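Quick check before the chapter quiz. The format below is the same one you will see on the exam, so make sure you can read both the input and the output lines.
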Amino acid sequence: MKIGFGREVNELRRPEDTMARLIWQDTAQGGKMAAISITSPQATGLRLGILIESLPAAAVLLFYSQKGDNAIEVSGAEILKLIKLNVDAGDQTENGRTYWSPQIDGEELTIELGLPPGTSANAVSIAIPRVSHIYRTLNAPNGGATEEIGQSLSCELDVSCYGDWSPSSRATAQMTYTISNGTPYVCSGTLLNNTRADYTPYFLSANHCISDQTTASTLITKWFYRSTSCNSGILNGGYQTRSSGATLLYASADTDTSFMRLNSAPPAGVAFSGWWGTGQTGIAATGVHHPQGDLQKISFGSVQSYDSCLAGNIQSCTQNSSYGNYLHFPFSTGLTEGGSSGSGLFRTSGSSAYLIGQLWGGAASCGNQNGFGIYGRFDVAYDAALKNWLNVGPPAITVNGATVTQFASRAMVTPSGAVYGGFQLANPTNLYIAVRGPSLGTLGITPTPLARPRLSLYNQSGVMLTSSNQCSGSTPDNAAVVSYYQNVRNQALDPNDACLGFVTSALPAGAYTFTVTSDASNPNGSGEVVFDTTPAGSGAILMQFGTRGTVTPSHAVYGGFMLANPTALIVAVRGPSLGTLGITPTPLARPRLTLYNLSGQPLATNSQCGSAGGDNALVAAFYQTTRGQPLDANDSCLGYVNTTLPAGYYTFSVASDPAVPGGSGEIVFDTTPLH
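Here is the expected output.
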């Protein structure tokens, strides 16, 4: 949706014109500084189109309004990187060498250039041939309301009224961008995860919004751009903006797909959406979007059929029950408008939502009971190209045989109930271990977190090697763990999470256990935790992982693992048979084990090792003959011995079995590759 227009600045059209107006002054630090102010009367916001002929990487550009108190700083290196992206993508024109500044609210924008000591002003050659005049501001003072907010139709639904959709809301951004003539537009887009779950900021929108690299470089995203509370109409003061553009990876008019990687990390607290790689009709679905660029809204309906459409012509679409590149989505409540383009359509499976398409267009109004939206099919784009980025599998690690390369689990810690974990290392291994309590929100988990977990690591003899109750502490390599989660996982840890890093010095091969308890500084502390054990670097091998926790009717235990290669695997959950491990609390009489793929689809469920089917007998034999720990018939087993699991990412849950209502008690679950 168009939100302004481009204006030529003839006085600054050529570099020599612009440079003649810059009056350089010496700074106290020994550098140089010059500034120029541009006004476009009656604009509610401005962006400058700056033609770059030459600019030192060490230069610093500040953008601000002389009536405001905030400045946005951009380095010369960041600008040159964007220009290189455009040129490398084939745009050798002035458009490709034009950098579009961050947006500054108001009708005046000042650009201030700073050069470090020893850099001559002659190293700078720029022009400002045009500006983007925004006549509809999409910003507002923190906690305030403006006339521009609330411009979407009255029958739109406020996403803040639907807390169950918080993860999809936190994955959805309002996006503005500027085309080569300076005209600004607004659309919507969605942050996607990949199968490695490494939180690379992949971003999906519509091809009719962004279809070339030069436009992608102008992208501005706004996150948490929603109301403070249900139907308040007041902008959430915690919304955040990113103005670093994106790298265009794939664009196609066939499914109206624009797939990018953001050039800077989104803010902490966003969610990375899952996605569904197969097409399906006749299912309920939900759209999350920014109609008219407004505060975030939500729409509900069902995918009725596929649509076959000619690119760029919605009127050409014909419904088809068997095939088409688009999804036909009649609205039951809510709708979409201009500005909603590119927004995600989600289906649910269990308690999770998965993206299945992005908005192309539609026909809807508050008075039209037959309104619908048309969404490009994600699965078609995925098969065509997106799988090359999204289905990347676990990190490449040199291994011999079957390897579990990472393991993460979630459980409830109470003052009287700790969580215990164990792993085996086949070789000396650099390792990250973190227990996330306060920072659970960055994983999209919002129960009551444990305010401060304590993580203690033991060797096979039960001797404690080290203990941590704060990621900000001084235990081994804490800083490396924090940096890994911040920069690789894009999930900032809280200082009150617990970290143990073995990065500069590896843990020797052997068997280890650890405990997660409430910290002594929080003696009555209880809450959810997620603990995560990840080898760092090539050659690291986790041979086996087992964990102990408490299952109640309202609290399951969750585990996850990645396989670096097709793997013969056994998974067992020990409830009644805990005595063979020397554990004698109240056991869970019958645990139910369910294994899921990355899309959240259940692959197998088992609540009795004594039941027929699968490789149960082989699992039981393994524990009897290899471990010397016979399983109980009411333990739960899943074996992949005769058939291996493909490489990939898996999760599982351990809950009380419906046949034992109200069941609760201790369990130990154990995941072991077979060599």
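If your answer matched, good. The domain at 393-404+546-675 is CATH 2.60.120.380 (Jelly Rolls).
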